[in-house]
Write a structure and sequence with these properties.
single chain; mainly beta; four-stranded antiparallel β-sheet; 14 strands; 10% helix
């Protein structure tokens, strides 16, 4: 998604799980900003497992396997056609991918009618990526523990926040406007209650 206009000085406020909020100041504007999540085990990983069905080119038959994860490796066009693609799988009782046999990648299908007897927690990460708007040029990227979140300010503070002076860098902080307004109302109500009881006198 694109943020800000030409001439703005965008600031991206981002945070990952277990970390404090950080700021990236961009010299480019407008910018495209995205936060994506992924499994450290790869796109095919499942905590509960599933069944794959694939044709084995060296066994000359279709094979069913119950796995948590799989990967197909291309050994190169110069290899024997029968052994060009190797299937690696993570079995239910294993923590690693291991080679099993050669396969035809186009025949592999996944099915949810089988699962592992135990679950294995997924480890997820979040990735922040900032690009020059409308291009594939990455100007900043970083990642951390899931979940991640971000806000973009085309001025000093993101929408919905108020700028407050601060002694620490960058010399100001951004506070939630709704929260500040609520605190002001509470103080006002307290003063009104005290005044109504005659406990505050002026002059």
């Amino acid at each position: 998604m694109s943020y800000c206009n030409i001439g703005d000085s965008p600031k991206v406020y981002f945070k990952f799980n277990g970390q404090s909020k950080q700021i990236y100041s961009s010299k480019e504007s407008p910018i495209d900003v995205s936060m994506t999540d992924y499994s450290t085990y790869g796109a095919n990983f499942s905590s509960t497992g599933y069944r794959i069905n694939v044709y084995s080119t060296n066994n000359f038959q279709y094979v069913n396997l119950t796995v948590r994860n799989y990967q197909i490796v291309d050994n190169g066009a110069g290899s024997d056609p029968i052994f060009r693609y190797t299937l690696y799988v993570q079995y239910c009782n294993s923590d690693v991918l291991e080679a099993v046999f050669a396969v035809n990648p186009s025949t592999l299908t996944t099915h949810n009618d089988a699962s592992c007897p135990t679950t294995k927690p997924d480890i997820r990460k979040s990735k922040l990526e900032i690009k020059k708007a409308g291009t594939s040029t990455i100007i900043f990227t970083t990642e951390g523990d899931y979940p991640g979140s971000f806000e973009v300010a085309c001025a000093d503070c993101p929408a919905g926040t108020c700028r407050c002076e601060s002694d620490s860098y960058p010399g100001y902080c951004c506070q939630d406007c709704a929260s500040l307004a609520s605190q002001v109302r509470q103080i006002k109500n307290t003063v009104q209650i005290v005044n109504s009881k005659g406990k505050v006198k002026y002059g």
